[in-house]
Write a structure and sequence with these properties.
With 327 residues, the chain is of the alpha/beta class. Helix content is 63%, strand content 7%. The two termini are 13 Å apart.
Length: 327
């Protein structure tokens, strides 16, 4: 099965195609091809936490619901695990490989189903009561009603409907604050590079990538009874290959590096969502459809090459790509 990761704007294009919006006419073929591929089980378009956050930011309830219905129709609830699930797994695998530990590789499900998998939680589960209006429910009825209730819960969770505007404003404020913090961090890195010299860009990227996971890395070393000092004693010489052993962390570092290599291009709050989503999508999906600027940077720097992932910017490329994959 081909896993296809779509940037939020691409989902908007598909929603327009599905609802007959004039701007969606040119994407109707892509919409139909993806829908057919999903039904046939030959391709799927998994949702991520970034998709939920971005969908909730749509202020128009009808547009939000149209978008959610399109996303669930095409994805079939297929979902990709979040960074806080994938990164601990990658750290443990990297430590086992780096230190040659005699331990089994931990298990993980990168892809799964629904909001629970997207967010790495169990809170989005529909629970049917034992009785409804004091009438007992048969096993068959329970199975049917639970499935129906879960389906309704999934679309309401993605569409964030109905939700008061005050709640959505709080979510947007939270997202903006995190984005602003990310921008400040990247601007601090840029300023530090201006002081120490941009020839140290590679070292700076390794240092910041390790700093981001340091607490989790040290905790995992303690649990596995591994002395982390040999990793740090070698500096970039040992930490660089260690990061390469963690696909999402290596991609995340490379995405930040390619942006930092152009200090004139300002960082924006939404870059946090882009970097977080792409750092998971590029190593674990087969095709990524994202915006023009990221597509150009990723392909130029060949960030996708180690994983064989195809990165394009236009939904209209998908029919040809899927036909080629099936040949």
């Amino acid at each position: 099965m081909q896993r296809i990761y779509l940037d939020q704007n691409k989902w908007v294009d598909l929603a327009r195609a599905r609802t007959g919006h004039p701007e969606g006419a040119k994407f109707v073929e892509a919409y139909e091809v993806l829908k057919a591929a999903g039904a046939a089980g030959t391709a799927s378009c998994p949702l991520s936490g970034a998709h939920y956050f971005e969908t909730h930011k749509q202020g128009d309830p009808q547009k939000r619901m149209d978008l959610a219905k399109t996303m669930l129709e095409i994805s079939g609830l297929d979902a990709i695990a979040p960074p806080h699930v994938i990164v601990p797994y990658e750290i443990e695998v990297a430590l086992i490989e780096t230190f040659g530990l005699d331990r089994p590789t931990p298990a993980i499900e990168i892809f799964g189903q629904g909001a629970n998998h997207v967010h790495g939680t169990e809170m989005f589960a529909y629970a049917l009561p034992d009785e409804v209006d004091r009438v007992s429910i048969s096993a068959d009825q329970r199975q049917f009603l639970t499935a129906a209730g879960q389906a309704a819960l999934e679309i309401l969770t993605l569409a964030d409907y109905p939700t008061g505007s005050d709640v959505r404003m709080k979510l947007n404020d939270h997202t903006r604050l995190n984005g602003d913090k990310f921008v400040k961090g990247q601007n601090d890195v840029r300023d530090s590079l201006d002081q120490i010299g941009r020839h140290r860009l590679g070292d700076m990227m390794i240092a910041t990538a390790v700093t981001d996971i340091l607490d989790l890395l040290l905790a995992t070393c303690q649990r596995l009874e591994v002395d982390p000092n040999p990793l740090f004693d070698g500096g970039a010489t040992t930490l660089g290959p260690f990061l390469e052993a963690m696909p999402s962390r290596w991609v995340e570092m490379q995405l930040r590096r390619v942006r930092q290599s152009n200090p004139q291009k300002a960082w924006e709050g939404n870059d946090l969502n882009d970097v977080s989503a792409l750092s998971i999508a590029i190593p674990y999906c087969d095709i990524v459809v994202t915006e023009k600027s990221w597509t150009g940077m990723i392909n130029t720097r060949k960030i996708n090459r180690p994983f064989g992932t195809v990165v394009v910017r236009d939904l209209r490329d998908l029919p040809t790509l899927l036909r080629s994959a099936a040949a």
